Amino acid sequence: MSLRLRRFRPLVDEPILREMRSDIPLQHRLLAHPDPTAPVDVLAWVSRREALGWFRVVELKETITAGFVQLTDRHGLDRYAWVGIALHPRWQGSGWGRRAMQALAEEAKSGLDLRKLMLQVRSDNQNARHLYGTLGYREVGELRHHYFDGSEYHDVTMMELLLEGA
Fold first, then answer.
1. Are strands 116-122 and 80-87 parallel, antiparallel or unpaired?
2. Which of 54, 67, 98, 141 matches a 20 to 30 Å C-alpha distance to 10?
3. What pTM was estimated for this model as a whole?
């Protein structure tokens, strides 16, 4: 099956991204602070992501919206950015996250001329930490009791990847 990163298409992507933005446990794994009482405005959310960085939908088999990847806080002179990825739960654990992260790294290096990618992940998210480690990310620090999910604080692990030829 094929995977590509493409621009957001509202009519195609909005239902899946709305479902993901409404999934409170998923949002907490992404270190977001969702308000379960607020309406989910996907169009405004994507517009903010695109205005502040680089946002792409993860598409499978040329028709399936599986999630998104993003780069935020891009620094032009130092040539780094912060990575974000989220796949719909039905596509997690099937290798698509790895392929999406590889495609993102390739675009960051060749298309955006970045030399380093960084990310933060909840320290208790062992699956994500393992995936990032196998992709070459290294742990560079831990923020103790950093993220509050509404009931408890969680440690956050910081990771970085130096892109080849950086």
1. parallel
2. 98
3. 0.93
